[in-house]
Amino acid sequence: MPEDLPQTFPRLLLHQAKVRPDRPAVREKDLGIWQVWTWAQALEEVRWLACGLAAQGFKRGDRLAVVGDNRPRLYWAMMAAQALGGIPVPLYQDAVAAELAFVLQDADVGFAVAEDQEQVDKLLENLTQCPQLKLIYYDDPRGLRHYAQGELTSLDALQALGREYAREHPEFLAAEIEKGRANDIAVILYTSGTTGHPKGVAQTHAALIQTARVLVAFDGFTEKDEVLCYLPMAWVGDFLYSYAQSFVAGFCLNCPESPETVMTDLREIGPTYYFGPPRVYEAILTQVMIRIEDAGWLKRRLFHAAMAHAKRVGMSILEGRAGVSLGDRLLYRLGGLLVYEPLKNVLGLSRIRVAYTGGEAIGPDLFDFYRSIGVNLKQLYGMTETCVSVSMHASGEVKLETVGKPMPGVEVRIADSGEVLVRSPGVMREYHKRPDATREAIDTEGFFHTGDAGYFDGEGHLKIIDRAKDVGRLAGGALFAPKYLENKLKFFPYIKEAVCFGHGRDEVCAFVNIDMAAIGNWAERRNIAYSGYADLAAQPAVCELVRECVEKVNRDLAGDAALRESQIRRFLILHKELDADDGELTRTRKVRRRHIAEKYASLVDALYSGKPSCFVETQMRFEDGRVGTVSADLRILDAKIYAPEARKAA
Amino acid sequence: MSEGRRIGGPLLEVEDVSLAFGGVVALQGVSFDVREHEVRAIIGPNGAGKSSMLNVINGVYHPQRGTVVFKGRRRRRVDPHEAAKQGIARTFQNIALFRGMSVLDNLMTGRNLKMKRNVLEQALYLGPARREELEHREKVEAVIDFLEIQHVRRTPVGRLPYGMQKRVELGRALAAEPELLLLDEPMAGMNVEEKQDMSRFILDVNDQMGTTIVLIEHDMSVVMDLSDRVVVLDYGRKIADGTPDEVRRDRRVIDAYLGVAH
After folding, report:
1. How far apart are CA A12 and CA A244, in angstroms?
2. What is the pLDDT of residue A24?
3. Could you tell me if B185 and B164 lie in one domain?
4. What contacts A259, CB < 8 A, 6 or more positions away?
5. pLDDT value of residue A562
6. Residue A246 has what pLDDT?
7. Which pLDDT value is given to residue A456?
8. How far lies A537's CA from each of A510, A526, A591, B208, in Å?
9. Least crowded by CB within 10 Å, which of A238, A570, A613, A633?
């Protein structure tokens, strides 16, 4: 990378304003019209904000909290803070006041920019606990007319102040930007943290910009790309994929009119580049399916026929693989004309060149759906501490099971424990004010310990299987990743929950919860009568259905050298649904494997002793708080185990 | 848009109004006033004459006796069209929107009286008509923003849930930029959350646009929270008038609501 390229965000802004002053930098839909700011105008907006902040006493190293939906002035406020050598701290807009208090104190926030009355209220509530918070600015004045607090000023007023300051000190901003260094902290991003308090990840300009440059080169982004900013500003995904990349590549950020209008805005903008966690893609697909089921007979038939064809050949065509017949290609073209293209248009995906997903495992049906209609959906892997970008699918090298090869400049090492270790320019400087946690996370060689377990497959693709602390070993020494197996089972619509056992044992066994809605519907269509969950779960036909699912998972595992031993030998369908009220799930619906193993110890023993059935009696708590017992004689079911070459036959 | 809220002199005075439909007496010698920028509630049991009172104010009914003075102009007979022109807008107890039209188009109808171009010019979308349409659209967009209904802008009203339709109806009235806004049971049939939203919008309209509001409402807690002064009707007569606190303590009001035998 040439040394003379700008190495801080404010310098990148100056660069863009010089190179492409008249290209759009930011759009926002307001009063029904997309308003545009060019790079030159964006620089002026930032100048007034920065000068205003300086006039109000903002100094180098000061922290500026930013809280609200994605609004142009909130992005510019972050830039203004950086221009003055300060550090923006974006906060989650849906956090309650008490959650904000910790971060405001931890990051020593003295200045804050809030989007609207709702966010202002939360900040004001924290004033007594956070005495260092002196000034709060707001973007949208609605409802704030009667607020008399001295801490409050509108961004309009701040910018007016800044304009005056800029007139008196015309060289001020340029001089401040000149003082910025690549190794200064550019932002503190707080990780949600499943346990304990969130930790502030301090990232430097150099780390973010370096990472963004690699990403821009990787997928060839230019000033002509468009992205819709709808992810929380406090998330590293938005900071990197919207903010950082836009300043590097010079493309335009589009801010939606409101969180409820994202789908409409998506369609109007037609982004060329899109990033979202799997649940966003799932929500879009669900909406499509609901609307298709409501459509007329002809449309419905057409849709299903076209999708079946897409599923058969669409992915091969997208990836340019050989072996698709001319007839199939023509049929796919026709499908495109009648179904895929109109569908993508409605979803706002017509112009998509690249779409990413990450953060959690994505189901095969979901992944295949988008790819089969020609959306180049790819997976990536990373976390806040590594500026995301550890690994990513390259176009044409997409494999559902993996998260792609390590990015250029990223070293990935697998520890003996199976934990994934990462060393790259994007690894964070430190956890803010937490030297202990920093030492724990980054070893002396500079490798960041991700806490995830994974391995490389034969083609050099990284495969993430579980949290490292949950991964065990079978008695034979093979890797055992329960969550990976459970997720594979849960991707079947018929299976709602699964719990796998195997650590320290010879083979893997599983508990399964059926999905009452999906299997109930399936049973009704087959005229199978049942009285309730336990009865349905005990139906021989249902057992066979679940057995098929388990065996499909086994067949898949057989083809995987590292996990071949983890095929599920025996399983049973539980007589009751796992429930948070009974302590079997966490409130966020994650299975509490250890607790379940203790509670149902007799069932686990039965699975491993090879008995044909097992009697069980369990207490359960009803929704009104009463406690009752359910008992059942559960069948223990065997599943077929596949040899490695079985995959080809399947 | 933000004129602020200073309660001024009387904007509307109702003087000794009586209204009967054949032998049925709906209103009997009712007098009260509405001051500029205030929120005035009309309450009363079923059949007390509340909706009739609103209909008299905006000219749907013509009282047999008494007068209505609006902005200092005394009038005996006025038709709804005239009332709307003078700056009175209203919503209805049973939603009265064009169900097949989008939210946006429904709100545009609220601007109807302010459109100066004739049908031909509008149909051809000539220069002046086009400019005019854009101006009106801008006003309507401000209302859409105010009521936070951007996400349903293009949705046909008939597909919206009930609470949202009520909000659109308020929007249609606001699009006319009224000085006096008549709301006929704006929260009827809503759940608690929708009621809270609607209450906030009513207060915001009053506070930020300075619009004077007369509202009919059944939910007593809503009335007490929202209004500056309350008129209580029972069997077509005014039985009380004052601040929410005064009215709440009034013996006759308590009797009327608890149903003491007359």
Report:
1. 10
2. 97
3. no
4. A69, A230
5. 84
6. 97
7. 94
8. 15, 15, 19, 60
9. A633
Q: Mutate which of A29, A30, A31 to disrupt the B interface (most B C-beta within 10 Å)?
A: A31
Give dist(CA A424, CA A407) in Å, integer: 9
Assess contact for A361 and A384: CB atoms under 8 A: no
Distance from CA of B3 to the nearest CA of A (A): 11
Q: List pLDDT tens digits, range B23-64.
A: 889 999 999 999 999 999 999 888 889 999 999 998 999 999
From B151, which residue of chain A is nearest by alpha-carbon distance? Answer: A261
Among B2, B150, B204, the residue with its CB nearest the CB of A257 is: B150
- Give the pLDDT confidence score for residue A113 in this predicted structure: 98
- Beta pairing, strands A199-204 & A405-406: unpaired
Residues of B with Cβ-Cβ distance to A145 under 8 angstroms: 2, 207-208
Q: What is the pLDDT of residue A492?
A: 87
* Co-location of B48 and B30 in the same domain: yes
Q: Using a CB-CB distance cutoff of 8 angstroms, which residues of chain A are in contact with residue B153?
A: 32, 264
Residues B171 and B199 sit within 8 Å (Cβ to Cβ):
no
Count, residues in chain A: 650
Low-confidence residues of chain A: pLDDT under 50: 1-2, 646-650
Question: What is the Cα–Cα distance from B180 to A522, expressed in whole angstroms?
Answer: 59
Residues B169 and B225 in one domain: no
Spatial contact of A115 and A140, defined as CB atoms under 8 Å apart: yes
* Tally of domains in chain B: 2
What is the predicted pLDDT for the residue at A286? 82
Q: From the list B2, B148, B151, which residue is nearest A264 (CB)?
A: B151
Domain A9-275 fold is Rossmann fold (3.40.50)
Could you please report the per-residue DSSP string of A605-644?
A: HHHHHT-SEEEEEEEEE-TTS-EEEEEEEEEPEE-----T
B94: phi then psi, degrees, rounded to nearest 5: -100, 115
β-pair partners for A228: A254
**b/e map of A139-177 (b: 16 or more CB within 10 Å)?**
bbbebbeeeeeebbbebeebbebbeebbeeeeebbeebb
The structure tokens listed for A519 are: 């299997």
Helix (H, G, I), strand (E, B) or coil at A427: coil
Task: Please state the domain extents for chain A.
Answer: 9-275, 471-649
DSSP per residue, A133-197: --EEEES--TT-TT---TTEEEHHHHHHHHHHHHHH-TTHHHHHHHH--TTSEEEEEEE--SSSS
Give whole-number Cα distances, A81 to A122, A166, A204, A521, A646, in Å: 22, 16, 14, 56, 60
Give Rg (Cα) of chain B.
19
Task: Spell out the CATH class of A471-649.
Answer: alpha beta
Range of the domain at B127: 100-177
pTM, full prediction: 0.86
Q: Are both B78 and B199 inside the same structural domain?
A: yes
State the DSSP H helix or E strand holding residue A245, giving kind and residue range, or none if neither: helix A245-249
Task: Judge: B204–A257 Cβ closer than 8 Å, yes or no.
Answer: no
Q: Find residues 134-193 of chain B whose CB sits inside 8 Å of chain A.
A: 137-138, 141-142, 144-145, 148, 150-151, 153-154
B105 touches chain A (CB under 8 A): no
